[in-house]
Each structure stands twice: as C-alpha cells, then as structure tokens.
Amino acid sequence: MEDVIQDCLSLSDGTIATLTGYRRYDEIERVQAELVQLALEMPTATSWMEVWDTYIERRRGGYDR
After folding, report:
1. How confident is the model at residue 1 (pLDDT cuts 50, 70, 90)?
2. Residues in Cβ contact with 16 at an 8 Å cutoff, skipping those fewer than 6 apart
3. Which residues, at least 6 apart from 22, have a Cβ–Cβ distance to it below 8 Å?
4. Distances from the Cα of 38 to the Cαs of 2, 13, 17, 24, 51, in angstroms?
5. DSSP state at residue 34
C-alpha cells in the first residue's frame, strides 16, 4: 500500500494534466491529493493505475457512498 501511495505522490504534474485535461496547478494538486486519499482507502490496490481507475469511476457517478 505504501508503494501505491508513494506512486500517487510521485505522479508528475504533466501526467496528471494529460489524464485530466487540467492545466492549472491548483486543480492538478487537488487531483493528486484526492488520489492519495483514495489510495489510503484502498489498502489492496497494487498500482496507482488501479487507484486512478477507481477515481474515474467515482467521478462518473459509478460509486455510491
């Protein structure tokens, strides 16, 4: 889990910008913080990409909390 969290923290601004389409640093930093938080909630995640997929699913309304 700690490796996945570290990977989320290490994602470059460019990677997040490409994935999201955001260009403003405040938006990019918000997404990164949300990914780290989500990784903390996903102790069985094996990669940042798994966290990303869940992040996108939740943003599209595919997850009821």
Report:
1. confident
2. 22, 28, 31, 32
3. 16, 28, 31
4. 12, 18, 18, 21, 7
5. H
For residue range 21-30, what is the model confidence (pLDDT) as tens digits? 999 999 999 9
Domain ranges of the chain: 2-59
In tens, the pLDDT along 36-57 reads 999 999 999 999 999 999 999 9
pTM more than 0.85: yes
Q: Which two tokens stand for residue 29?
A: 């930093």
